[in-house]
Amino acid sequence: MTPIQLSATLDVLNSALGFNAPADAVVSRHFRENKNLGPKDRAVVAETVFSVLRHLPQLDWLAGGEEGNKMPSTRDLLLAYFTRIKHLNLRELPAVFGDNDKERAAGMKGMALRDAPLNVRAALPQWAVEALLAEGKTEEQILELGQSMLQSAPLDLRVNGIKAKRDAVAAELKAVGDINTTLTPFSPWGLRVEGKPAINKYKAFLEGRVEVQDEGSQLLGLLCGAKRGQMVADFCAGAGGKTLLLGAMMQNTGRLYAFDISEKRLSNLKPRLARSGLSNVHPQLIASESDQKIKRLAGKMDVVLVDAPCSGMGTLRRNPDLKARQTPQSVSELNAKQIAILNSASRMVKQGGRLVYATCSFLSSENEAIVTAFLATHPEFKLLDAREILKKERVEIELANEYLQLTPHQHQTDAFFAAVLERSVPVAAAVEDSVDAE
Ligand SMILES: C[S@@+](CC[C@H](N)C(=O)[O-])C[C@H]1O[C@@H](n2cnc3c(N)ncnc32)[C@H](O)[C@@H]1O
Question: Range of 361's domain?
Fold first, then answer.
């Protein structure tokens, strides 16, 4: 690491560790304000900052002393990172670290992580470990999960089926940018990119043949099963990652509503929509989940996706600062919002229609607990088995139960959760349907 890179890393970390803004926003702002940093410097600084944030519970412990009674400085966190995560020996430490630092680094080298508390070894916040233990996870499962979040996430692309085929896009990226990709193991539209090329400067991206999307998100599309000519609602559409996928699955036919309460996020959907070539999408700003617009669509939708606002704890590889930014209080506020949104969104589902509830969290309070609470008050809905649905789509994936629960160590995706619910058809209507079909 050069002195310029090291000083930029310390500056960015000092801001990021205030946890007043998402780490990626802090990094981007620093790069905008410091034009002297070249592409290589930026890559090194960003990678180091994110890696430090991923390992923060361990670095805090190493730099704060085993008793954990000292607030470590950013410099000490970085020292712990170099000695224990990058395994530099004392001679290899950047010159900015003097003899005193080296003495502390030697102390850190002698500390045995295996003696540290479980949350330190799993590199997860203590409250999250307590929640996982309370829901019955073993120590081994918690370690596996936490440690799988310590790597950087791969770059996955989704090929836009209305504009291109997967093989053609893979060949195009190879030809124009020498970008190597492999087919994602589960999603029929996914390409996993080798390295981290700036994909947004290539025509395949600019002309809407590909979007950046984690394979886990792509699988949600399969669970929704949106089809040609249907009425579909993406309830928490945000900037439309899943909207674009659903619109392509519908072959640009039917009607797809993209609801969100955030004007800013919905406005970020506009350029993506333009690139995608979709004209079946109707972005709808709503004031809340009980907006009149929702009420008017009661019982009209074939598919409703609720990609609920959540803690994002399943995306710790990309957003490691969430380890410090989320708290039990913030999760419990989200839980109240999640159930309210699911209750409201469910009204739009027609008989026989599908309601998919999804989060990017591994906490059962945001996942199974919400679905269980919903089903307890909505006997007109039943839980479908995600394994069956994916099997019909010829996706061979190992899942522990009827829910989709992905993890980085098992599926090489973010930790996503989804439950597929169906509004039962009343017996009388089911008989009428079968007579009509004859
Ligand atoms: C997990 S994000 C959605 C990400 C998006 N589906 C995608 O694939 O890019 C959750 C979204 O829910 C929205 N949201 C929060 N409260 C809401 C509410 N009461 N009704 C509808 N959307 C809401 C947030 O603005 C945010 O965009």
Answer: 215-433
